[in-house]
Design goal:
Keywords: Hydrolase, Magnesium, Metal-binding, Nucleotide metabolism, Nucleotide-binding. This protein is an alpha/beta fold. It has a single domain, classed as Maf protein. Helices cover about 30% and strands about 25% of the residues. Bound molecules: 2'-deoxyinosine 5'-triphosphate and magnesium ion. The site of 2'-deoxyinosine 5'-triphosphate has 21 residues, from strand 3.
Length: about 200
């Protein structure tokens, strides 16, 4: 496999690690905006995951004039009618904080029993190139909101997201295990199936 460089339009270290772990073994060279500190933040003004992922991918692709992949993702909680959804990153306000976001979710769900704590992670990926129609794929992962945070692995809402099939939160499992089942991994599988055709 030749060198195929993809820039991921993210400044999130947790996402960056997962993209590298999944895509580098497939022969991709992965860079992220952490490698381009001078590029300003893209303001996420959209009301859907796709709008925000398009905004990030298309803005950075037009700026750098190379193919760019963006991820917009979030946690959708049944008892909160799908909230925080696209507002996941700043659910507890500015500056964005995983710890405060998790505390806010736990406080809002209170003592609701297991049957009422259903939730899923959603990930929309948009791959953009300056003179091409963008490619859009999505993936989800179902689970439940734990009663308290468990584990130090992962990032974001991982310590409070319990996966029944694993009997653990995502904060308790290795990167390998998460990357077999996650919303991001599921979206990347769909991207993988379409990327060769799209690049032609
Ligand atoms: O696998 C995940 N495990 C735990 N939490 C997660 C995951 N995937 C998304 N999330 C949470 C983190 C953040 O609160 C929001 C994403 O917000 P989102 O705008 O897509 O990302 P971000 O602002 O952290 O980085 P960037 O926009 O630079 O890609 O959902
Ligand atoms: Mg963001």
């Amino acid at each position: 496999m030749g060198e195929k460089k993809i820039i991921i339009a993210t400044k999130n270290q947790g996402k960056a690690n997962e993209f590298k772990q999944i895509l580098e073994p497939k022969g991709y060279i992965i860079e992220t905006l952490i490698d381009y500190p001078d590029i300003p933040d893209v303001v996420e003004t959209g009301f859907t995951f796709e709008e925000n992922a398009r905004l990030k991918a298309e803005t950075i692709s037009n700026l750098l004039q190379v193919p760019v992949l963006a991820d917009d993702s979030g946690l959708c909680i049944d008892a909160l009618d799908g909230s925080p959804g696209v507002f996941s990153a700043r659910f507890a306000g500015e500056p964005k904080s995983d710890a405060r976001n998790n505390a806010k979710v736990l406080a809002m769900l209170g003592e609701l029993n297991e049957l009422s704590r259903g939730a899923y992670f959603h990930c929309t990926l948009v791959l953009s190139s300056p003179k091409k129609e963008s490619l859009v794929v999505e993936g989800t992962l179902s689970g439940e909101i734990a009663k308290f945070p468990v584990g130090d692995y992962g990032f974001g809402y991982d310590p409070i997201f319990f996966v029944p099939e694993l009997g653990k939160t995502l904060g308790e499992v290795s990167e390998d295990t998460k990357n077999r089942i996650s919303h991001r991994a599921n979206a990347l599988k769909k991207l993988d199936a379409q990327i060769a055709e799209w690049f032609k």
